[in-house]
Amino acid sequence: MIKFNLGLSQKCLITLISVCSFSIAAHGPVTPQAINTSTLPTLGEEWFDTNPYREKEGDVLTEILRVGASAYNQNCARCHGLGGVSGGIAPDIRKLPADFDGDEWYIYRVQNGAVRNGAVYMPKMTEHLNQEALWAIRTWLESVSEK
Q: Cα dihedral angle (53, 57, 60, 66), rounded to 10 degrees?
């Protein structure tokens, strides 16, 4: 007959909870993080209606994608999922169409955030990140979208 060891079971449970908590916290802090966009093409203050980085190529696109991935992981992954794959907490934004309609929704959400019944589900990201960082995130998301 197998003996049940309560002490060992408790230690295993505590270890499991600690590991799971660490991986959730590893998604990044809740407070939006500043992003260095000095290596990206400058866009100015006025917002574009469509993604100005979508048609870029070569080294410029490579840098946009690098900055976009980093910015996403630091500012969006906690809710929208690592690698752009939503874990169900927030919408899977990889599925936005790479066109005017998708850009329109994206602009609205990053400018206005998401608040329901007074609870902030997503901050107004334009208060924390510049246009270059936010379009770099959108460009990176398009690069990892399921086509």
A: 80
Looking at the whole model, is its pTM more than 0.85? no
Category of 2 on φ-ψ map: left (φ > 0), alpha (ψ -120 to 50) or beta: beta
pLDDT digits (tens, 9 = 90+) for 23-39: 444 444 467 889 999 99
Residue matched to tokens 């959400």 = 109
The helix (run of H) or strand (run of E) holding residue 68 is helix 58-75
What domains, with CATH codes, occur in the chain? 31-144 (1.10.760.10)
Relative orientation angle of helices 58-75 and 131-144, to the nearest 10 degrees:
100
**What CA–CA distance (Å, rounded) separates 132 from 69?**
13
